[in-house]
């Protein structure tokens, strides 16, 4: 779904944003889809997506995903991978990662979450542990529609 939607959407002003910016482009009871513009050196620090699983599709530019993992000696290390234009990553609920744009040009990506995103938990790395820092995203349905508070 992320790949198909990514091929069909555009954000004409996305390449001109100064800060990481996002737009909700689709929402059902089963999923939501977000278009995210990434200026140079913008990042979403170590976080998860609450109980949602998801997919990230890079439409334009390149992003770097960093994933903490425990090696055979029990140490937490960070594995990095570049995610180029046209590539889609899928991840399960509880997946912790950092996503950033390290390239000189703006990037644009589409993120799909199921069930719809209701929380993002942020983490700090302390030695061999990930320490929960804050819940940075809350959404609530109301009769007047959706309310979103972002970090």
Cα distance spanning the termini: 26 Å
| Number of β-strand runs | 13
The H/E string reads HEEEEEEEEEEEEE
Name the shape in a single word.
globular
Give the % helix.
under 10%
Give the strand line-up of the largest sheet.
1-2-9-4-7
Largest sheet: 5 strands, antiparallel
Mean pLDDT comes to: 88
Give me a quick take on this structure.
By secondary structure, the chain is mainly β. It has one helix at residues 2-8; strands at 21-27, 32-38, 43-47, 53-60, 62-70, 76-84, 88-91, 97-100, 107-114, 121-126, 129-135, 138-142, 145-149.
Features:
disordered C terminus; mainly beta; 5% helix; 151 residues; 13 strands
Structural features, described:
By secondary structure, this protein is mainly beta. Helix content is 5%, strand content 56%. It contains one helix and 13 strands, in the order αβββββββββββββ. The chain has one helix at residues 2-8, and strands at 21-27, 32-38, 43-47, 53-60, 62-70, 76-84, 88-91, 97-100, 107-114, 121-126, 129-135, 138-142, 145-149. The protein has a five-stranded antiparallel beta sheet with strand order 1-2-9-4-7, covered by helices on one side. A four-stranded antiparallel beta sheet has the order 3-8-5-6, with no helix packed on it. It is globular.
List the helices and strands and how they pair.
Blueprint: H1 2-8, E1 21-27, E2 32-38, E3 43-47, E4 53-60, E5 62-70, E6 76-84, E7 88-91, E8 97-100, E9 107-114, E10 121-126, E11 129-135, E12 138-142, E13 145-149
Antiparallel strand pairs: 1-2, 2-9, 3-8, 4-7, 4-9, 5-6, 5-8, 10-11, 12-13
């Amino acid at each position: 779904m992320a790949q198909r939607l990514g091929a069909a959407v555009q954000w004409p002003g996305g390449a001109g944003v100064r800060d990481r910016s996002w737009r909700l482009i689709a929402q059902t009871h089963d999923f939501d889809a977000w278009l995210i513009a990434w200026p140079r050196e913008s990042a979403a620090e170590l976080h998860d997506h609450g109980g949602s699983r998801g997919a990230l599709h890079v439409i334009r530019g390149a992003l770097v995903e960093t994933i903490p993992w425990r090696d055979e000696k029990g140490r937490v290390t960070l594995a990095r991978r570049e995610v180029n234009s046209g590539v889609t990553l899928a991840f399960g609920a509880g997946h912790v990662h950092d996503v950033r744009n390290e390239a000189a040009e703006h990037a644009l990506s589409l993120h799909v979450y199921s069930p719809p995103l209701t929380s993002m938990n942020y983490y700090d790395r302390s030695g061999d542990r990930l320490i929960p820092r804050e819940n940075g995203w809350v959404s609530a349905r109301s009769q007047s529609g959706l309310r979103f508070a972002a970090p």
